[in-house]
Amino acid sequence: MERCPSCKSRLKAESIDCSRCGAELQWVILCEMIAKQQLNEAIYSLVQQQPQQAAAALAQSLSYQKTPMALLLRDFLHHKYGRFG
């Protein structure tokens, strides 16, 4: 995370609180980590030819954070398999 989601101030590396507005960011950071982990799981499952597991992991990832990569993978699954989730 480069900017505070509350005040949009630039964050210092490894910061868990915003120096400008004081927002506590540890839960936001945790959600980003979980989203990334689930996205990696979705990609791995897709490589392993397991589209249902990929869709489930991707749904979890998107529930935490909608990254461009996750949205692209969602569109790919929808196009290739005609469904998502």
Question: Whole-number average pLDDT?
Answer: 92
What is the chains' assembly state? single chain
In helices, the fraction of residues equals 55-70%
The total strand number stands at 0
Main beta-sheet strand count, sense and barrel state: none
Rg over CA atoms: 15 Å
Based on Cα principal axes, name the global outline.
elongated
Q: Element order, helices and strands?
A: HHH
Please count the helical segments: 3
Q: First CA to last CA: what distance? A: 27 Å
- Structural class comes to mainly alpha
Strand residues, percent: under 5%
Low-confidence stretches: none
Give an overview in words.
The protein is mainly alpha-helical and 85 residues long. It has a domain at 33-81. Helix content is 59%, strand content 0%. It is built from three helices and no strands. Helix 1 (26-47) runs antiparallel to helix 2 (51-64) and helix 2 (51-64) runs antiparallel to helix 3 (68-81). The mean pLDDT is 92.
Quick description:
The protein is mainly α and 85 residues long.
Key features of this structure:
85 residues
Write the layout of secondary structure elements.
Elements: H1 26-47, H2 51-64, H3 68-81
Helix pairs in contact: 1-2, 2-3
